[in-house]
Amino acid sequence: MKEEVAQSPKPNFLRRIYDWIIAWAETPYGLWALAILSFAESSFFPIPPDVLLIPLVFCDPKRWWKIAGICTLFSVLGGILGWWIGYFAWDNLKDFFYAYIPGFTHEHFDYVQNLYQEYGFMAVLGAAFTPIPYKIFTIAAGVFDLNLITLILASLVGRGGRFFLVGFIIYLIGPKAKEWIDKYFNLIATLFFILLLTGFAAIKFIG
Length: 207
Hints:
Helix content is 77%, strand content 0%. The chain is an all-alpha fold. It has one domain (14-205). It is elongated, with a radius of gyration of 19 Å. 33% of the residues are buried. Mean pLDDT is 80; it is low at 1-11. Residues 48-171 form the VTT domain. The chain crosses the membrane at residues 21-47, 67-90, 119-142, 148-172, 184-206.
């Protein structure tokens, strides 16, 4: 009987994405990728920039503040694009967003409009810092004519607070954080997905 050759199981889909992100973070183009991801996520892309911010800080912890700063800057610039879409192009693009971008529904927009009318700055700040989908708030800000300066200031505080906090925590913990994530990746991925779903649900049910 021929001896069977043991084969290691193929990594699951989430594991492959994580490994791909880590590999990208170790290239000379990691910061460019972070800038593009941060910009896109603020107006239409579903994946938050934290997934690339974290491995970039792992790879170069001494520059955590620069990495967080780039993430913040381009996220706010993407938020301005979101405002522009809402203010100038929503009538032409809304069918696309309602059909293909997660979280965009008439109910969500009605709720966000009420938040803007009552809270304004704090509504953007909450969306910028928490798992609540920020892109819905940036586009809705343009649709409902929220002052652009208010959006920018609230986004700088909220996005900056979130990304600098994440970067600083990773910097403090150091390599042990990477070891912990490697060991418990599936659990972390599941919890992260739950947070995203909670963020979408919060738009409809909070208040």
